[in-house]
Amino acid sequence: MVVNSLSFLLFFVVVFVVYYTPVIKNTPKLQNAWLFLTSYFFYGVADWKMIPLLFGATAVFYGIGILLKAEMKKGNAETASCITTFGVILGVCILLYFKYLNFFAESFFHLLSGIGLQVSWTTLNIVLPIGISFFTFKLISYIIEIHREHIQPSTDFIEFGVYIAFFPTILSGPIDRPNKFIPQLKTTRSFNCDQAINGSRQILWGLFTKMCIADNLAIATDSTWADYSSQSGSTLLLVALLYPIQMYADFDGYSNMAIGVGKILGINIAKNFNHPFLARNIAEYWRNWHISLTGWLTDYVFSPLNIAYRNYGNWGVIHAVILNFVIVGLWHGANWTFALFGLYHGLLFVPIILSGSFGKKKKLQPNNYGLPKWDDLMKMMGTYCLVAIGHIIFRADSVTDAFLFSKGILSASIVNIPFLGGSSVYIGLLLAICMVFAEWRYRNKDYPIQQDTDYPGFLYLKISDFIIVTLIILFGNIDSKQFIYFQF
Prior knowledge:
Layout: H1 6-19, H2 22-25, H3 28-47, H4 51-73, H5 77-114, H6 132-147, H7 157-165, H8 178-185, H9 193-226, H10 233-264, H11 282-288, H12 291-308, H13 313-331, H14 336-348, H15 350-354, H16 374-395, H17 399-409, H18 423-441, H19 457-475
Helix pairs in contact: 3-7, 4-5, 4-6, 4-7, 5-6, 7-8, 9-10, 9-18, 9-19, 10-16, 10-17, 12-13, 13-14, 14-16, 16-17
């Protein structure tokens, strides 16, 4: 059930109507029970065979949380630490088994074969549960936050189950933290018209970026990658530059729709993007890209590593950053391209760390004409090019494909006129440019069509709504292409 589909709209209408009926709306437990049932139904439509895994993991971690707090109350610090470690290892093992077992086993046996040992490995028929990278991180953070005494364990299984399986975020995030999400489930969520309108506009913006930009650009990127060896260098270069925009429009589109759905239901979901292509260096980019993932890894991976390596100065920070980004890469999938993608981005941090500017934030200021200053613009373009190079590695099926694609860009045919296919691709490109300008203009907002106090609010928003709806009707790709991050 793709979020930008008629079936999801019908599903959500049913969820909405029942959720705010007089019988349910004044009772948080009933609202939570309804969200629990509908979230499991939604997940079951996507992957019904994995419902026992989702339910079982939720039940086990629910019990671990209660047991952990009981030991902490008794003052058994060592036992509590062991329980926390067990919970974290269990979460990691679930992810490793379903997502990485075959990959690491095959890599290990290939290594043994390379040194002359005659070994073999039969690939196991393991089905990858959809959304596993997202809900396992929720489970792990829940246990860690209890141990850090940032939250109390939930004593309501349904409440905890909604946090793990909430249908707008179960498949592709954002990855909500328990200390911000669970407290919202303890209070009554009454219908708020202003919040619902704001959420609906955020959904509308997500539909626009997904259907009008990402899905139209995908026509060119998918066809080019499917037969890159026969394409000109200029086409490969243009596709390489388009793919980061396609991915952003796709993933940010999903995130905006998920956040918008949450707002309509009276639940605030974590922000996932903050105009990443306005970044002037790679550190700024990652602070604003997939924020819920990078924030999670910063808190639970980078910070502990940085503390462990603190005696090594800048080189300790570099080691922590590189290890962190290799994990960022591998989180996306079991392929050496993702590990290389993470390593590449980790290495891009080295000059920033050695220059002493790591962690420093400088506010983006426009020039006298309201545009980016020339120096900032050049840094934005340079950062985007570095990101585009990394996305070649990310998009490739293998390291060899990434190398050959890059080699094709540097061929003599780079001076040829690029070929992208039909007119819809160029429409997607034009709208992508409009999106970037809109993001610059409204860079201090979550998304461009929020209330703007600089203009007559009612008139401005009505015009914006009309334009966006018209663009979706005229240029939106109605094939309901699956979101890129569903595969992760």
